[in-house]
Amino acid sequence: MSSFLNNSSLTPSSMYEIKRRYELLDELLKELIKCSDEGDIILVEGKRDVSSLRSLGIHGIIKKVTHIPLLDLSEKLRDMDRCVIILTDWDRRGNILADKISSDLEYMDVDVDTSIRNRLVSLVQKEIKDVESLDSHMKKMKHTVLQQYY
């Protein structure tokens, strides 16, 4: 949809789809912001992911999973006694990381949320492949929707 978003000859049905996806994505990001504001911890892969989420309005705890051994990270998260939202990329590496982290944390009785990641992936996987692209993708979608409807 990235090139799709730049196409000036969008059909009404494709515009409706873009608008609907934008609305769903916006709702999902508001939910993520709320969870973060309430103390949930978000796990990402790298510093660009952190920057993207910060620019989207997420101000809570965001931890990078690639700079610490997973066992150490899991133990630290267990001791923090918070819900953990896994938000790794949806490429092969990110999927493997998400599965590994999720199973490690669940084994340690940590409350893990993978539903936000799963919903996010279902909304954007055709257009982008990582968390770091999320902020620019949202801006493009918003621009397209505003240009078409307002």
Structure description:
This protein has 150 residues and is an alpha/beta fold. It has helices spanning 2-5, 12-37, 47-55, 70-80, 92-107, 115-124, 134-149; strands at residues 41-44, 62-64, 84-86, 112-113. The chain has a 4-stranded parallel beta sheet with strand order 2-1-3-4. It is elongated. It starts with a helix and ends with a helix.
Topology:
Blueprint: H1 2-5, H2 12-37, E1 41-44, H3 47-55, E2 62-64, H4 70-80, E3 84-86, H5 92-107, E4 112-113, H6 115-124, H7 134-149
Parallel strand pairs: 1-2, 1-3, 3-4
Helix pairs in contact: 2-6, 2-7
Using brief descriptors, characterize the structure shown.
four-stranded parallel sheet; alpha/beta; 8% strand; 150 residues; single chain
Broad structural category = alpha/beta
Q: Catalogue the unreliable spans.
A: none
What's the gyration radius in Å?
16 Å
Question: Oligomeric state of the chains?
Answer: single chain
Helix content: 55-70%
How is the main sheet built?
4 strands, parallel
Give the SSE order as H and E letters: HHEHEHEHEHH
Discrete helix count: 7
User: How are the strands ordered across the major sheet?
Assistant: 2-1-3-4
**Mean model confidence by pLDDT:** 91
- Beta-strand content bin: 5-15%
Distance between the termini: 21 Å
Q: Got a strand count? A: 4
What's the shape?
elongated
Give a short synopsis of this structure.
The chain is α/β, with parallel strands linked by helices and 150 residues long. It is built from 7 helices and 4 strands.
